[in-house]
Amino acid sequence: MRMKRLPKDFYEQPTLELARSLLGHYLVHQHPTGEIIAKIVETEAYLGAIDRAAHSFGGRRTNRTEVMFGLPGHVYTYQMHTHTLLNVVSGPVGTPEAVLIRAVEPIQGQALIDQHRPGLKPVDQTNGPGKLTKALGITMDLYGHSLQHEPLFIVEGEAVTDVEAGPRVGIPNTGEARDYPYRFFERTNPYVSKYR
DNA sequence: CTGAAGATGCCCT
DNA sequence: GGGCATCTTCAGT
């Protein structure tokens, strides 16, 4: 398999374009017990200061959001109840934007995924932001990690043509921001998270 | 220090 | 369709 790592400047495009562009590329996690590769099939953009749904809305700068103010192409992980969620930091330094990875399709390392999420239909192992981090073994340890390095990075994958955009998921109390079409997904891909 | 809230998912009815 | 698990963060005392 061709494994061309996405260059630093890939992450420098505007956040909405980045969210769209990430679809089809392969997320690689070199887990201690083996390598897992999965194709990104669903993303959401969070536009920082001007986006009420973003943690960094209004320029809110805390320990948690700090990494979003830094270089694009780094990892913003955070905990949602019992789950870790994975974001890619976007926007130039000082502009706290990010792209949430919402769903992936396994390409390699199925045995490991089965180990992390046993007894489930394949589709149910990675069709959600909390599910995929568990399946790939991604934890809060990766907060601030650069995607230019091991053990977590993104390589060039496949072109995706049937992209659909729609409202983001799970942000009911964010006023106007609730309806912004900042969610992107491969329309025909069965691993896209279902609802909405 | 305490408590409330949350970009979720799973299990129950 | 509703309740709840279970963790971290952050604002308020």
From TrEMBL:
Keyword annotations from UniProtKB, A to Z: DNA damage, DNA repair, Glycosidase, Hydrolase
Enzyme nomenclature, EC number: 3.2.2.-
EC class name: hydrolase
Transmembrane regions listed in the UniProt entry: none
GO function term, MF aspect, one: hydrolase activity, acting on glycosyl bonds
Pfam families, per database record: Pur_DNA_glyco (PF02245)
Superkingdom of source: Bacteria
Coiled-coil ranges from the UniProt annotation: none
UniProt-listed PANTHER family: DNA-3-METHYLADENINE GLYCOSYLASE (PTHR10429)
UniProt record similarity statement: Belongs to the DNA glycosylase MPG family.
Protein name from the UniProt record: Putative 3-methyladenine DNA glycosylase
Source species: Exiguobacterium alkaliphilum
